[in-house]
Structure formats: C-alpha cells, structure tokens
Amino acid sequence: MLTLARRVRSILLLSLVVFACSRTVLAQTAGDLDPRIVTLVASISPERLGATLKKLESFETRNSLSSTDSATRGIGAAREWILTEMKSFSPKLQVGFDTYQVPKQGRIIRDVELRNVMAILPGRSPRRIYISGHYDTVARAGGQSASNSADGPLDPDAPTPPPANPTAPLDNLAPGVNDDGSGTALTIELARAFSQSGIDFDATLVFMCHVAEEQGLVGARLHAQKAVAEKIPIEAVLNNDIVGGDTGGSGIVDGATIRVYSEGPEDSPSRALARFVQRWGARYVPSHRVRLMARADRFGRGGDHSAYNQLGFTAVGFRESRENFTRQHDVRDTFAGISLPYLAQNARVNAAAAATLALAPPPPVVTNERGQPTISRAPSGYDANLRWTASPGAVAYRIFWREAWGPDWQRDLLVGNVTNVVLPNMQIDDYVFGVAAVDAAGHESFVSAYVTPPRASTPIRTSGQ
Ligand SMILES: [Zn+2]
What we know:
This protein is α/β, with parallel strands linked by helices. It has helices spanning about 5-30, 35-40, 45-60, 75-85, 145-150, 175-195, 220-230, 270-285, 305-310, 340-360, and strands at about 95-100, 110-120, 130-135, 205-210, 235-240, 255-260, 290-295, 315-320, 375, 385, 395-405, 410-415, 420-425, 430-440, 450. It contains 10 helices and 15 strands. The strands form 3 sheets. Strands 1-2-4-3-5-8-6-7 form an 8-stranded mixed sheet, sandwiched between helices. It has a 4-stranded antiparallel sheet with strand order 12-11-14-15. The longest helix has 25 residues, at about 5-30. The structure holds zinc ion.
C-alpha cells in the first residue's frame, strides 16, 4: 500500500516526466545543427592558414628571447605582425598585447618583457571560451628527435645549459612552422572567422597566441595567474600545439584524426570538455575523428593547457595524430612539414566546438555550497534523484549516464526547463550521471558530472603514545 505522501510524490514524478516529454519534442524540432555554425565552419580557409604559416616562417625565429628591434626578424616583428593582422579582421575584435616584465628565472636566462597577443570578441556574458596556440619557437642541436632517442622520457623542466653570452638575443634559426605556427595560424584564422561571422555569441571568445611556451608554459601561466587574481571567468580553453602535420616520422600518414588530451580524474571538467569536442566535432565535421586521450599530455612533453589546468581551469590540448620528431624544436620545422587540408580540418573541429559552447548556456552547477554533488536516492531510496542549479538561457537540460566503468556516455535524455529529475529505480552507485544545459536552438553546454570529491583521511589517535 502506498502512503499518501508516496502517492503525492508519484503524481509529481509522473507530471515531471510528461512535462519533460513535451519539451523533448519542442527542442528536437530545432534540429541538431545550427546553419550559422555550418557556415562558420565552412569558412575556414586552408589558403589563409597557409599564408599565415608562410608569414610566421619568414620571421626566421620567434624565440621568446630573440631580437625585438628588427621589423622583419625575431619575436618583436612576429608579435607586431600578429597584432596588426588580427586588428584588421573586424572592429568587434579587441586586440592587444598581454604584457609582463619577467626577471631571469628557470629557462628565462635574462630579464625579458613577454607579450601574449590576445584578441577578445565580446559576447553577451563575461564567461570566456579560449582558443589558443603558442607563437614562440625554439630550435636546439638535434631537435626533439635527439631528445626522444635518449633513454626514457626527459624531464621537460630540466635546466638547459646557458649560452656563452646570456644577454645576447637568441637569434638562431627556429622556424617553428608546426610547433607552434600551426596552432597560432589556427587561432588567427578562427579569430577572423568568428569575428566576421555576424553571430551574436553568449560567451566572450578569446583568441590567444601565447608566448614563452618553450621556456616552460610561461606566457600561459602568467595569463592564468592573472585570471585567478582578477577572477576572470574562463570556462574552457581549447589549446592547439603541433596540429599541422599528417605524416609521422615513422612514415604513417593520418590526415583524418586528431588527438585531444585532457587531465583526469575521469569526470573532471576537462574530460567533460574533451567529450564535448568529440561529440560536436563529429556532428559538424563528420569526416574528421577526434581521438580522446585520457591523460594530461604525452610522456615527458608539455603544453599550455596544463598551465590552465594547474590553476583550476578547464582546458584540453589538441595534438596531431602522428608526430614527426625530426621537425620539432629543430631547424627542419618548416612549411614543407605541413598539410594544409589537415590543419584546416583541425581548425574546423575547434570552430564547431567553440561556437557551440559559446552559443550554449553555461554548464549547470551540480554541487551544493559545500561542494557535495546534488544527487540522492530519494524518494524511494532506490531512485536516481538529480538536482542542479538553472543555467541562464537554458530552456531544457540533457541528462547523460553510463555504467560506472567506462569512459563515454551511453544514454541521454532531454528533459524540460526543470532543475530536478527522478529516474525511478536507478541505483546511483552503479552509474555516472551528468547534465548539460540546452538553449532554444539546441546548443548544448558541456556536461557537469555528479562526482564525490575525494575525502581527506582522518588520522586515528591511539592511546598511550
Ligand atoms: Zn609547442
């Protein structure tokens, strides 16, 4: 026999389900693809990417410690050109240097002024989506292939021997067309495409060309530190570093896939962002496959997304599928190692993911003020009861779940403009649940997953000690 209270709860549950179904039909009529995003993705130009790469190569070196007094050579000329180029795209883009005075430390072998080049496309809200690469370069004798041939992964933070004259500019040839001219050209091309799209984005988009990645993610760390200090709401960073080559040094050619690295644990926001890139990349660019890598980065290698992760931000790293180490940190990293059709496909995946994210509402909050997940077994004690905080602009939410063993979502269900759903008789201990916010046109946020934060170990006192 049902008690009265349980009967009332059953009626409420039923009405919720009916409401959810009616909203499901409504939201699905909007279709999966936004024609404006289709147009934006199609506007990515391999020819423009190629022209940008040739220009970047012409500076001969973009080492962060190279000359700044030449109009045609070195990092000073390169950053001025990137600034001017991005300024030319649209009056909507706010382009400027993100400048820091950095004293000698670590791999920065002398005091130096470092400048990220940053273009902001303001949205209706201050929350920010970043697309990034690093425009600085480095070349060493033997390059990355010599490092790889050493026994075991090298420590990326190991000190390098100082040059004979540490005050002289490091002007040795370092073309860096793939590392990371490719990520820089992609970032610049997306700055153009987004700012000229005519789309009114909800999120603010930031196109960031980082400096001094090769000295230990320095430009990215400095900006992430500033974002923490100034409480800049960075929602997601899509970082691209070495994304232009389709032919590996071992001879394998793969121009149809891209790797995306993200730090754990399994349901961290960065993993949710990585799954989002795969889901929406596959819809807008079905000819290209995103291979998700459940690790922060490659062995012994680093990238700017990690600088954001380390300060608590959500960030992933795009890497070409087959690397050629003889063309990294080496004078041989030239235009000849680039496949423009491949780089363009990677740019399109970035564009699809960033545009969808920037049009979607922010991801729902699924924790309470104490950081605990708002999931319970109520009302029966055997149900999955999910609560979340409404996201501004959402008209529906999509619930995702999978068995609590496995990397990818297995089921999803679109529900209405509610902040609580009960899935009867689903044992919450056996599944991972998450929820994404959906707007009227079907744009989805990435998924906020219900996870238990790690518990601190409480030491047990013993008597007589
Ligand atoms: Zn790099």
